[in-house]
Amino acid sequence: MSYAGDVTPAEAYAAVTGPEGALLVDVRTRAEWTYVGVPVLEGAGHDVAYVEWSSYPDGRVNPQFVDEVRAAGLVPGRPVYLLCRSGVRSRAAADALTAAGLGPAYNVLEGFEGAHDALGHRSVAGWKNAGLPWRQG
């Protein structure tokens, strides 16, 4: 069974700040949250869960990922939107949550910063570039 699908950063923001009670989970590493920034959800009752999919610098997948997301408030039937740097780790995380019977789980395309441009720079796409609220870690 595959995750529910891919959405743009703007679609994810609308869903997690809307009335359906969706959860945003940032699956990047602590280093990324600290040095690159984190998404911000405006309005009462809208929270972001920070749960590493993999660790830095070794890239090991977090064996407690599903349990940690459950502890952050995800229950079966609650929509969840997963965000990483570029949309790759979040896709794997969405598959893992779906396999665990959670979600529907959505992958946020382009992630927080997007892929590299021709010069090797980031922040050309994704949450930050879409003008969505964020703050420096």
Helix content: 25-40%
Number of helices: 5
- What is the CATH first-level class name? Alpha Beta
Total domain units: 1
How are the strands of the biggest sheet laid out side by side?
1-6-5-2-4
- CATH homologous superfamily annotation: Rhodanese-like domain
Class per helix and strand makeup: alpha/beta
Give the tally of β-strands.
7
SSE series: EHEHEEHEHEHE
End-to-end C-alpha gap: 35 Å
The largest sheet is: 5 strands, parallel
Query: Which architecture per CATH?
Result: 3-Layer(aba) Sandwich
Strand-residue proportion: 15-25%
**Spans with pLDDT under 50 lasting ≥5 residues?**
none
Averaged pLDDT: 92
Task: Describe this entry's structure for a reader.
This is Rhodanese-like domain-containing protein. It comes from Fodinibacter luteus. Residues 18-124 form the Rhodanese domain. The protein has a single domain (5-135), classed as Oxidized Rhodanese, domain 1, CATH 3.40.250. The chain has a 5-stranded parallel β-sheet with strand order 1-6-5-2-4. The chain has a two-stranded antiparallel ribbon with strand order 3-7. It has helices at 9-16, 30-35, 65-71, 89-99, 126-129, and strands at 5-7, 23-26, 38-39, 48-50, 76-83, 103-108, 134-135. β5, α4 (89-99) and β6 form a beta-alpha-beta unit. The chain is built from 5 helices and 7 strands; from the N terminus they run βαβαββαβαβαβ. The mean pLDDT is 92. It is α/β, with parallel strands linked by helices and 137 residues long.
